[in-house]
Amino acid sequence: xxxxxxxxxxxxxxxxxxxxxxxxxxxxxxxxxxxxxxxxxxxxxxxxxxxxxxxxxxxxxxxxxxxxxxxxxxxxxxxxxxxxxxxxxxxxxxxxxxxxxxxxxxxxxxxxxxxxxxxxxxxxxxxxxxxxxxxxxxxxxxxxxxxxxxxxxxx
Length: 155
Fold this sequence. Notes:
Helices cover 81% and strands 0% of the residues. It contains 6 helices and no strands. Helix 2 (17-29) packs across helix 3 (34-77) and helix 5 packs antiparallel against helix 6. The longest helix has 44 residues, at 34-77.
């Protein structure tokens, strides 16, 4: 997501930061695969219905082919320490990219102490609500939206 944001918002300027954030947030609350919803939302924002269709097909077809190939080869790869080390490295890289995406999404709201406090409390609260309480994204995002609506930054 961090790479997509850099490309779509900062480099190509096809989406505004707000459009990207909205598409990302809405995709997180949709049932099913969130990335497909994200691709549909950003594609629709850029090119309407055809953009949404292209976004969904562009995300699903290569992923489906890759998933089939990985599934076919995983049995033989599971005993190979080099392949398993490569998979562990991939997991670490994906985790880092997810944190980079978080940073790109919250960075604009860190303008002052109130913004920092709001990001820390809402992000931390959302993390704890999902992790410790097992809440799904819908109630967490709705609660955060309500809190954000009433907790305005007047500065």
